[in-house]
Write a structure and sequence with these properties.
single chain, alpha/beta, Rossmann fold, 2 domains, nine-stranded mixed β-sheet, two-stranded antiparallel ribbon, 25% strand, binds iron/sulfur cluster
């Protein structure tokens, strides 16, 4: 049985155990520019099975440049923000007290909404004792769906969200990207960088998180923040080091001393950067960069083993 078939079997077993829901692998990092999208798209192509790849980096979606899907659907997306009926509002202040984002203020005997700050949780509507709050739709961006059929036996169902110009509230659109139904057994999320609300919204509920980093002081600092974040969320995780032979050894030392699994190291090669700049996938057959990726190509069947290895707890402490 090939590594790919083994992975498929293991993921199938996981699905059965988890009531047949897809296995969700989130690719995240504490900072931008570490190679998340490169990894996410390469993993999707290397999986050798039906994959749903979701570009959750809605502020700067770019996975489509590598996947080059055939687009099939474009939909504008709205999010609910509260509208307050001044006639019914008693200015009790319960909505403002509940809102963790300061999106409602009560002053001068009336409640005011700051829609740009609202995360659309709808908690205020539920708590209002007077039934004075209803939902108002606010445009937030768009969703695009398509399919990559480079390997017809392993199609990539691609979903991407794009925040509208002037909109700053990414989490509701990220939830929309994650909520589009799909039947593929593997779900890969290309997450926004950082450790704030967008990243947390994207990784929350995942079965496993891969944190991509680079061996620099900035990479280490942001990796520590990302590790702390996924630990607080109680998510199992591992690390992939990009440009692994650049910089220093502090990221390696940090992972070793904390017992964190380094699932893969990608070397620092000009040919990889050139392939990236052309929009080539890391694992594309015949890609000029591939011969220059001895470590990656040698372990690519096990790259597919990245999720495989990660299915086996405990891999990190
Ligand atoms: S909870 Fe309802 S009644 Fe109370 S201040 Fe808010 S909108 Fe007005
Ligand atoms: S919907 Fe949620 S985030 Fe928005 S104002 Fe109400 S409580 Fe605050």
């Amino acid at each position: 049985m090939s590594e790919t078939q083994k992975l498929e079997t293991q993921i199938s077993d996981m699905r059965r155990e988890k009531n047949a829901r897809p296995f969700t692998l989130a690719i995240a990092s504490g900072k931008g520019g570490t190679g998340k999208t490169t990894l996410a798209t390469a993993l999707a192509e290397a999986a050798g099975m039906g994959v749903t790849l979701r570009d959750c980096d809605v502020e700067e979606p770019n996975a489509h440049l590598f996947v080059q899907p055939h687009w099939s659907r474009h939909t504008e997306q709205n999010r609910p923000v509260p509208r307050i009926d001044a006639q019914r509002c008693s200015a009790c202040g319960k909505c403002a007290e509940l809102c963790q984002f300061n999106a409602i203020a009560v002053a001068g005997g009336r409640a005011m909404v700051f829609a740009e700050l609202c995360h659309s949780c709808q908690g205020c509507r539920r708590i209002c004792p007077e039934g004075a709050i209803s939902d108002e739709n606010m445009p937030m961006g768009s969703l695009d769906c398509g399919m990559q059929l480079k390997d017809p036996a392993a199609p990539i169902n691609f979903i991407s969200g794009k925040l509208a110009i002037g909109q700053v509230m990414a989490p509701p659109l990220i939830r929309a990207v994650k909520n589009v139904g799909a039947a593929e057994p593997l779900n890969i999320l290309d997450c926004p960088p950082g450790t704030s609300c967008p990243m947390i919204t994207a990784v929350r509920g995942s079965d496993f998180v891969i944190l991509v980093t680079e061996p620099t002081p900035f990479g280490l600092n942001d990796l520590e923040l990302a590790v702390e974040t996924v630990r607080q969320l109680g998510l199992p995780f591992g690390v992939i080091i990009n440009r692994a032979d650049s910089g220093d050894s502090r990221v390696h030392d940090y992972c070793r001393t904390r017992g964190i699994n380094i699932a893969l190291e990608i070397p620092w090669k000009r040919s990889i950067a050139e392939a990236y700049s052309r929009g080539d996938s890391l694992c594309e057959k015949g890609a000029p960069a591939k011969p220059a990726l001895p470590q990656l190509s040698a372990t690519w069947p096990t790259t597919v083993s990245v999720p495989t290895a990660m299915l086996m707890p405990p891999i990190c402490t």
